[in-house]
Amino acid sequence: MFAGDQASRALGIELLEHGPGTAVLRMTVTAAMVNGHGIAHGGLLFLLADSAFACACNSHGPVTVAAGADIDFVTSAHEGDVLTATAVQRTRYGRSGIYDVSVLRGDEVVAEFRGRSRSIGTRSKESQP
């Protein structure tokens, strides 16, 4: 799935590890990712966490999408920071799941993300709107 994720790859996000219900991704904050306050744009931090969530929740096979997600920004990130997003499955029941993602700069927490997933089956790209 990550190989086809052009949005994440265009931002230089790398998939470092993956397994059943888990994923670790890395992104370096570039000058193009900094907002008017001189800090990393929150939407791009969300995208990093969401990409890790997507890799983790799709690790079980059926096509799975976000049903919802929340993020808490703990501190800001800056140009040149290397951020790592680690996604962990908390629970999976039927077609639904809950995943937590920690975005770190080294050992420092930058953001905490919680995603709720929903499996939608195995529709082909041709049958999707």
Write the layout of secondary structure elements.
Elements: H1 6-10, E1 14-19, E2 22-28, H2 42-57, E3 63-73, E4 82-93, E5 96-105, E6 108-121
Antiparallel strand pairs: 1-2, 2-4, 3-6, 4-5, 5-6
What is the topology, as strand order, of the major beta sheet?
1-2-4-5-6-3
Give the termini separation. 18 Å
| Main β sheet profile | 6 strands, antiparallel
Overall strand count: 6
Shape: globular
Helices and strands, in order, run as HEEHEEEE
Helix content: 10-25%
Instruction: Give the low-pLDDT segments.
Output: 124-129
Strand-residue proportion: over 45%
Mean pLDDT: 92
Going by helix content, strand content and strand pairing, the class is alpha+beta
**Number of helix segments?**
2
**Radius of gyration, Cα only, in angstroms?**
15 Å
Describe the structure.
The chain has 129 residues and is an alpha+beta fold. Helices cover 16% and strands 47% of the residues. It contains 2 helices and 6 strands; from the N terminus they run αββαββββ. It has a 6-stranded antiparallel beta sheet, covered by helices on one side. A hairpin with a 2-residue loop joins strand 4 and strand 5. The C terminus is likely disordered.
